[in-house]
């Protein structure tokens, strides 16, 4: 018999499974709102002009493709730190910040998880309820027990702040707390900055280990504004980890470009942490890719390209906002009585629309509109051509 005879079929990824179904759907006006990708008004994944310029320059320079250092390109890592903490960050000046280029936000979470497992073998990980569907699986794969803290309140379409805070306050010391620093996936619901201040104090008081995940910097209110929570935590003076991603903000999904950043107590501590983190990376994939690292680094470090990038990012952000507004307006225009104004308060690519699993199912079977069964829709997949169709269909399903 074959070695693999007894291998069981794993369940397919719920969201990627939805894509497969969408691709074979024969509805003429089908719309895929299940994805986690930004599409432009023509329904295409944009290739940013800033990226294109940096890529052309790189090809033109006929750059050799040697190995990068294990922790990646220094100019890239410095660029990441500046984006997260600000160019004038005293922590950077003190040499306490360590960044390793990683294979997307996912790769950053994974090397962070492996490093933490070594450091805190007894700790549990807590994630928000709900959270990005890969958080639990990823930390469980790294041999952590994963539990949740309250987050979303379906009754208010908002944050269950008191329950969240009480849960964090009661966690044992050194529990690893995964927090979405902006544009929460899947709900779109973020705490206010005042609430964040209380969350940060609770984390510090209870001696928890914050692991901030920021995959959508620039999609909320702006690059600097969206880093406010990272900077708030950094100023607490406690050790922390940050996973960040350029998949969305550079529209470079397939290039696997992200970073893990750690804030240590001192420069010496940082050097020792780096040496351990390098072992984790070395035994996983050795070193990160040159292409994406170089391209992003040259955009971050070339004033003209940086200016172009921030313009293009603002365009993406503003288009998503406009789609939120149009969705709410069009639902009203189609006679929907329920109040959908909460969609306007949500931030980032996603909205927990409040649609039930049955309604989501009806959207798919009757209209060829795909959403996640939780009711999560990707607002960044709406456009001027499909918004009327989607709003009409939702109105019918609610009707
Ligand atoms: N964290 C969150 C909250 C995400 O939504 C995502 C991606 N959808 C990631 C991490 C992973 O990002 P990447 O695609 O860069 O691996």
From TrEMBL:
Gene Ontology biological process terms in this record: L-phenylalanine biosynthetic process from chorismate via phenylpyruvate
Q: Which cofactor is recorded for it?
A: pyridoxal 5'-phosphate
Give residue ranges for domain Aminotransferase class I/classII large. 29-394
Which enzyme type, at the first EC level?
transferase
Q: What is its EC number?
A: 2.6.1.-
UniProt keyword list: Aminotransferase, Pyridoxal phosphate, Transferase
The record, for Pfam families, names: Aminotran_1_2
**One Gene Ontology term of the molecular function aspect:** identical protein binding
* One Gene Ontology term, aspect cellular component: cytosol
- Extract the InterPro entries matched here: Aminotransferase_I/II_large (IPR004839), Asp_trans (IPR000796), NHTrfase_class1_PyrdxlP-BS (IPR004838), PyrdxlP-dep_Trfase (IPR015424), PyrdxlP-dep_Trfase_major (IPR015421), PyrdxlP-dep_Trfase_small (IPR015422)
Q: How does it assemble?
A: Homodimer.
Describe the family membership recorded for this protein in Swiss-Prot or TrEMBL.
Belongs to the class-I pyridoxal-phosphate-dependent aminotransferase family.
What's the protein name? Answer: Aminotransferase
Output the lineage of the source organism: Bacteria, Pseudomonadati, Pseudomonadota, Betaproteobacteria, Burkholderiales
